[in-house]
Design a protein that fits this description.
alpha+beta; 6 strands; 3 helices
Length: 129
């Protein structure tokens, strides 16, 4: 089920669409959590959005449980920004969701993005080489 909320929780600014919210009906897991956060910059605001990501990424890399937090920009669509996130556990992700730097970014993103931030939770397919 897809939910839209203000921030990743009710206390944050910015709109996030969380496509994986009901995956949370499972018990909080201590297995890795993989997410994609997609956002589209408003016309003419692409550079500002890119610059706003720098302090978010820098601070997030210092968080316990952050395995990967890698921003990407669309090759053929420079307004598209995608964050690939891997967290050691659900507990670490929840702590990140409460962080001041994520809240600050969400406030900025509200004016820099069209449609907020869509969060997609991914599960491994178990395919090996």
């Amino acid at each position: 089920m897809t939910t839209t909320q203000t921030g990743r929780d009710a206390g944050s600014a910015g709109t996030f669409t969380n496509a994986g919210a009901d995956a949370g009906t499972r018990q909080a897991s201590e297995t890795p959590v993989v997410l994609l956060a997609r956002m589209r910059a408003r016309p003419g605001r692409e550079q500002e959005l890119q610059e706003a990501l720098v302090p978010l990424v820098t601070a997030t890399h210092q968080e316990p449980g952050c395995v990967a937090y890698a921003p990407h920009r669309g090759h053929d669509d420079p307004a598209l920004f995608v964050m690939h996130e891997v967290w050691q556990s659900e507990t670490h992700l929840r702590a990140h969701e409460q962080s001041a730097h994520l809240r600050q970014f969400a406030e900025k993103a509200a004016s820099l993005t069209d449609g907020g931030i869509a969060i997609e939770r991914l599960e491994p397919l178990g395919v090996t080489r």
